[in-house]
TrEMBL record, chain A:
Belongs to the binding-protein-dependent transport system permease family. It comes from Halosimplex litoreum. It comes from the Archaea. Keywords: Membrane, Transmembrane, Transmembrane helix, Transport. GO terms for biological process: transmembrane transport. It is a multi-pass membrane protein. This is ABC transporter permease.
Automatic annotation (TrEMBL), chain B:
This is ABC transporter permease. GO terms for biological process: transmembrane transport. It is a multi-pass membrane protein. One of its GO terms (cellular component) is plasma membrane. It is found in: Cell membrane; Membrane. Residues 1-75, 386-412 are annotated as: Disordered. It comes from the Archaea. The chain crosses the membrane at residues 116-136, 177-201, 213-234, 240-258, 305-323, 347-369.
Length: 336, 412
């Protein structure tokens, strides 16, 4: 229980650090976002705007009132973000929360599906490879896995767009769903969502599963040589039981740690993938904001990506503790 | 199968395969031959830290010489006894060369993956240095517009929509990329190793503080963080800075993994001996702990190098990083945005060439990492050998961090 509390506390700390960091980036950098925003306001408003008006507009956009002392600015900024107010986007002229909020589920949909697919396919393939170790199948799959593992997701995405999107027109090349269909729990809508999500998900999953397969293969081969497996065979347990309860379980558990790192890379990679497929997720808006120098939107996007990722990793971590009794953490070690 | 398989000799990881390879055994790293080598092989001089001390003292003209004659009155205690055979300076140097350079090189060359990796990486290094002399600098209107790849000998990889030679663009992008890769990998590995060893070795409060910091860093999404920092800090296109920026929080994962390796080392006898002798923590970490982590560190250096390539090219492709020279990612960006390479087949080669360049380099680095793994760690080879009958001393070695890192490589 204390581990759970500690882990949750750590996640809150992460979010706190990131939000504080974003305040520092906006407010404290000389020649940074704050100066840029002010210069932009002066350019737009010309001489008709007084300094007070400019400061007011900046405060509305960034939640930072420049005239106040820094600690008051910091406190206001933090409370505003905690209450869900991320400022106003300059480019879209809307509250940041109302742009990015609806985009989060889509990004989570992409990354979670990709991660799940890559994990399931990779682990099963790796198990078969380990079982048929040394066969042609094993060698070919290892080769393919190595090449996929050395391919960035965006390369696959670009190939998908070029071939399946434009040349053969099997899949759409942009958007979350067909805008002619009304959103709702109807079969055509869900089908359209799947069709639009298929290529982004596939391009993230394809590059991921090579890595999973290779590490599952390695782990399985290692487990296959363990003593407890010999004992299990001597006890006359069924092959099925040995495969599932002994080999699979012990080979998959170490990979759970990798899952947490993978959540991070997949989430980060989604930024590039979403832009290639013009898929309006959080990463898409993040890049839009950067191109438009829309600092409030950019910071909001970054904070929300982090929060989503922190939640994902925390869940993965907590469930890991339940699956593997050895992963209790917090060992009382002697300190030197 | 063999009961001697896990004899202590196998713990001196980088010496065993080396010796076996010196003996001319081509399949050197098989653990059987490693441990068995002692009885059957030709006699080999033992080189270890202790032996060297003895030799230095026994060398002619050394001040230790006098000391020796003093105490050599017949009853030399075993602590003062010197080695009977001493090696000359050249002999020692040659032996060091064989042991540390030649033998690992042979092992690397023995493994087809590592060989491929070495060849690829060398090729890119040459491309980034000698290549600049051989290929003309890219400029617009070098040739006809949008020549396909492998059509003419003059422009082997084709030209862009503005008539720039694609091959020369690729070649002239290499130096910047190499600098970026090196700076990013060095930054991650140094910071990760220092944090990880310190946390794992010291334990207690140091450990919890350092690990909390790296846990926090680890949970911040790397690529978006890089993008935000690059925009807010308004850096110019200095490749060293960009390399560091791309790996800005990658050190945290490495620190965690290294920490768990250190945990298995910190209570080893020789570390405990150093501690009891009152040697300071920095010295213990530097001379007792880090050498044992070298295989792991070098592997991660290569992994990080690949991560930098993926990240840098991806962000250049998106157009969010500043640049002031040629770059593979910028080429891809231009191909897609200026010539519509994804929708028009005429410009597709413009996109494909940098893609292949990246994949081949990444593949080379991956295989090199696996090769490095083999050089340093005979167990890995044993594990992949066909008849693996492990006697199960692999707890700290196999699963956790190994699985984590190889899975993590699948990302982006």
């Amino acid at each position: 229980m204390s581990y759970v509390l500690k882990r949750i506390g750590q996640s809150i700390l992460t979010v706190f650090v990131v939000v504080s960091g974003s305040f520092g980036l906006i407010r404290l950098l000389p020649g940074g976002p704050m100066d840029y925003l002010r210069a932009q306001m002066i350019q737009q408003g010309g001489s008709s705007m007084t300094m007070a008006e400019i400061n007011q507009r900046i405060a509305a956009q960034t939640n930072i009132a420049v005239e106040e002392p820094v600690y008051v600015q910091y406190f206001d900024y933090m409370t505003a973000i905690l209450s869900g107010d991320f400022g106003r986007s300059i480019w879209f002229e809307q509250p940041v929360a109302s742009i990015i909020g609806p985009a989060i589920p889509w990004t989570v949909f992409l990354t979670a599906s990709a991660l799940f697919l890559a994990f399931v396919v990779g682990v099963s393939l790796g198990a078969v490879m380990a079982y048929k170790e040394g066969s042609t199948f094993d060698l070919t799959s290892t080769g393919v896995g190595l090449v996929l593992n050395s391919t960035p997701g965006y390369v696959v995405a670009l190939l998908f767009v070029a071939y399946l999107g434009y040349r053969y027109q099997i899949f759409p090349t942009g958007g979350r769903y067909n805008s002619a269909i009304d959103p709702g729990f109807s079969a055509p809508f869900l089908l359209s969502v799947l069709k639009h999500g298929a290529l982004p998900i596939a391009s993230m999953a394809v590059v991921g599963f090579g890595g999973w397969a290779l590490s599952m293969r390695g782990n399985s081969i290692r487990v296959l040589g363990e003593d407890y497996l010999r004992v299990a065979r001597l006890r006359g347990l069924s092959t099925r039981r040995i495969a599932l309860r002994y080999v699979a379980r012990n080979a998959i558990l170490p990979m759970y740690t990798g899952l947490m790192i993978a959540i991070g890379t997949v989430f980060g990679g989604a930024v590039i993938i979403e832009n290639i497929f013009a898929y309006p997720g959080v990463g898409f808006y993040l890049i839009t904001a950067i191109e438009a120098r829309d600092y409030p939107l950019m910071m909001g996007g970054f904070i929300l990506i982090t929060v989503a990722m922190v939640i994902g990793i925390t869940i993965a971590d907590l469930t890991y503790g339940m699956l593997d009794p050895r992963a209790k953490g917090g060992a009382s070690r002697e300190s030197y | 199968m063999s009961p001697t398989k896990d004899s202590p000799a196998r713990d001196d990881r980088d010496e065993d395969p080396a010796f076996a390879a010196i003996e001319g055994d081509d399949d050197a790293i098989d653990p059987e031959s490693v441990t068995g080598a002692g009885d059957s092989g030709p006699s080999r001089p033992a080189i270890s830290g202790h032996a060297r001390k003895g030799r230095v003292a026994a060398d002619d003209g050394e001040p230790g010489d006098g000391l020796r004659t003093d105490g050599a009155g017949g009853s030399v205690s075993e602590f003062e006894q010197m080695a009977d055979v001493s090696l000359s300076e050249t002999e020692r140097r040659r032996q060091w060369f064989e042991e540390k350079i030649l033998a690992p090189a042979r092992i690397v060359w023995d493994d087809w993956r590592a060989r491929f990796g070495v060849v690829v990486v060398t090729f890119y290094l040459l491309m980034g240095t000698v290549g600049l002399q051989l290929v003309a600098e890219p400029s617009p209107n070098q040739g006809p517009l949008l020549v396909g790849a492998f059509r003419t000998l003059q422009y082997p990889l084709g030209t862009t929509a503005s008539g720039t030679d694609i091959m020369s663009q690729i070649v002239y992008s290499t130096p910047t990329m190499l600098i970026m890769i090196t700076s990013g990998a060095v930054f991650t590995v140094v910071l990760g190793t220092v944090t990880g060893t310190l946390a794992g070795y010291k334990g207690g409060r140091t450990d919890s503080v350092l690990m909390t910091i790296s846990d926090v860093m680890m949970t911040i999404p790397g690529l978006p963080l890089t993008i935000v920092l690059a925009t807010a800090l308004s850096i110019n296109g200095n490749p060293v800075v960009i390399g560091v920026l791309i790996t800005v929080n990658a050190w945290a994962g490495l620190a965690r993994a290294i920490r768990s390796q250190v945990l298995t080392l910190r209570d080893a006898e020789y570390v405990e001996a150093s501690r009891i002798m009152g040697i300071g923590t920095p010295k213990i970490i530097a001379s007792d702990i880090i050498p044992n982590l070298m295989p792991y560190i070098s592997m991660n250096f290569v992994r990080q190098a690949r991560a930098v390539i993926f990240g840098a090219v991806g962000l250049y492709f998106l157009g969010v990083l500043p640049y002031n020279s040629n770059n593979w990612g910028v080429m891809m960006n231009a191909a897609v945005n200026r010539a519509g390479a994804t929708s028009s087949p005429a410009a597709f080669h413009w996109l494909l060439v940098p893609m292949v360049t990246i994949i081949v380099l990444a593949l080379g680095l991956t295989l090199l990492a696996q090769g490095a793994d083999r050089v340093f760690n005979p167990r890995v080879r044993a594990r992949h050998a066909k008849t693996v009958e492990d006697d199960g001393d692999e707890e700290g070695d196999g699963g956790g961090p190994g699985g984590a890192t190889s899975a993590a490589t699948g990302g982006i």
